[in-house]
Amino acid sequence: MTEQMITIDGIDLCYETFGDPADATVLLIAGGAQSMVWWEEGFCTRLAEAGRHVVRYDHRDTGRSASSPPGRPSYTAHDLTTDPLRILDALGVRRAHLVGLSKGGDIAQRIALEHPERVITLCLASTSPAVPAEHDRKLPPPSPQVMATFTDPEPGPDWTDRDAVVVYRVEAERPYAGSLGFDEPHYRRLAAQEVDRTRDMAASMTNHFVLDYDTPAGFRLDQITAPTLVLHGTTDPMFPFEHGQALAAEIPGARLVPLPGAGHQQPPRELWDLAIAAIVEHTEEG
Questions:
Q1: Are 11 and 48 a contacting pair, CB within 8 Å?
Q2: What is residue 218's predicted lDDT score, i.e. its pLDDT?
Q3: Which listed residue (53, 59, 232, 264) is catalytic?
Q4: Is 65 a known active-site residue?
Q5: In what order do the strands lie in the sheet with 255-259?
Q6: At what angle do helices 184-197 and 162-173 cross, to 10 degrees?
Q7: Dihedral sign computed on CA atoms, order 161, 264, 206, 145
Q8: What residues does 54 pair with on adjacent strands?
Q9: Catalytic one among 59, 236, 243, 282?
Q10: Which residue segment(s) compose the domain that 92 sits in?
Q11: Is there a catalytic annotation at residue 74?
Q12: Is 74 helix (H, G, I), strand (E, B) or coil?
């Protein structure tokens, strides 16, 4: 594995690779306010051992990538959406397998619709349709606990107090747990990694959520041509399972693999065998 920085148009983006660059590239796109560490090293290593060139990266305002003042991002939602293409360009990769989670799944859908020539296959995890349908999908809303994180958010910590920030980052994940439970020591380790390598955690926890996200005009899910795998937790409290079912129903030929007991998260360790096998099988093409 090799962590590297690239600078494009004056913007620093940090990424890390696993495996042989001669193998097909699998680009992992994390969720909003998530740095690359949430795609765990062990998960990436297992994909690489299966013969994939795995790439994970820090969104702007996460990890070691470019940072803006809290509440004042110096970039647009479109920039965030096209950063995966900048990463691929830096690697000299014309076409890749995209694996996007939550907001990363939204980004992956947009790329598949707007830049289909860059996508070999698509894997959408813990996400929801990024474009409207001709009919009302009537998808269920987030749980009350998740809604409260938006309507009545906890006050931020003292951002200069490293331990307080780690606790805050852990607690930010707690409402999104599924029925498998919340492994607090595990989340604490990931949160500590994130805090210790992030330029500005106040910006990281704020800026993605003040961007103006538009809805791509004129697109429908049935226009996605890339073979698509949908991974969705059966107890996802942010996007209940029906959201994954809608993706699988509307994208031609898409296959849905339920993740039993998973919440709104990267596939938990208990389900790595299932999720990794599904991704490996799906990315055999190319």
A1: no
A2: 84
A3: 264
A4: no
A5: 2-8, 11-18, 53-57, 25-29, 96-101, 119-125, 228-233, 255-259
A6: 130
A7: negative
A8: 18, 26
A9: 236
A10: 2-282
A11: no
A12: coil
The model's pLDDT over 63-93, given as tens digits with 9 standing for 90+, comes to 999 999 999 999 999 999 999 999 999 999 9
Q: What is the CATH number of the domain that holds 192?
A: 3.40.50.1820
- What is the DSSP-derived secondary structure letter of residue 271? G
Between helices 103-114 and 77-91, what is the axis angle to 10°?
Answer: 70
Amino acid identity for residue 101 in this structure: L
Rounded distance between C-alpha atoms, residue 27 and residue 191, angstroms: 22
* Interval 11-66: pLDDT, tens: 999 999 999 999 999 999 999 999 999 999 999 999 999 999 999 999 999 999 99
Q: Residue 264 catalytic?
A: yes
CB 33 within 8 A of CB 67: no
Q: Which of 102, 126, 128, 204 is catalytic?
A: 102
Looking up tokens 């498998």 gives 180
Q: Tell me: the pLDDT tens digits for 186-214?
A: 999 999 999 999 999 999 999 999 998 88
Give me the number of domains the chain comprises: 1
Rounded Cα distance between 176 and 169, Å, is 12
